[in-house]
Structure formats: C-alpha cells, structure tokens
Amino acid sequence: xxxxxxxxxxxxxxxxxxxxxxxxxxxxxxxVTKDGGSYEEPDIWGRRKLAYEIAGKTEGNYVxxxxxxxxxxxxxxxxxxxxxxxxxxxxxxxxxxx
Length: 98
Known about the structure:
Elements: E1 4-12, H1 18-34, E2 38-39, E3 43-54, E4 57-69, H2 71-83, E5 87-94
Antiparallel strand pairs: 1-4, 1-5, 2-4, 3-4
C-alpha cells in the first residue's frame, strides 16, 4: 500500500501545558513512524479561542502536523485521537494532488 501526504490538525484540552501538548503530539506521531511513515516538525499554535463551545470548553490548544503515511496508519491515528479525552477535535486532510 502506498503512502500519501496528510495534514493533521487537532485541538487539545486548554488545560494542557506546552510540555504536555508536545508529549501528546509525539505519542500519536509514533503511530505514523511505527508504520514506516514520516512527519514534519509539529506546528504548535498554542491556546486559542474556539469559534464555538465544544464539550464545555471555549478555548483549545491547536496543533498542525504534515505527515506521510499509509491510509491504514492515518485511519488508526484518527481513531486513537478520537478516543483520547484530552483531544477536543481532529481533522485529517489528504494533501496529495489529484
């Protein structure tokens, strides 16, 4: 199965400090590298106001990461991110040119 380019954006709990956010991000990116994928340095935007309240939160820590992985690895990454209570929202976009 061939690898594709993706962009992951997730919003984490605003209570996480910078180190906790970095550890959370690295923990999930291990799923990408474990399967032979790669990723660029995560772009941690930090704490921002949400457009609307999500799960009682009005702010969140934003993280954006570009990575290359198989569709299966990307689907698994999305699945485990959605299971974590510290992650408020996720969005994975495939960036390959059609």
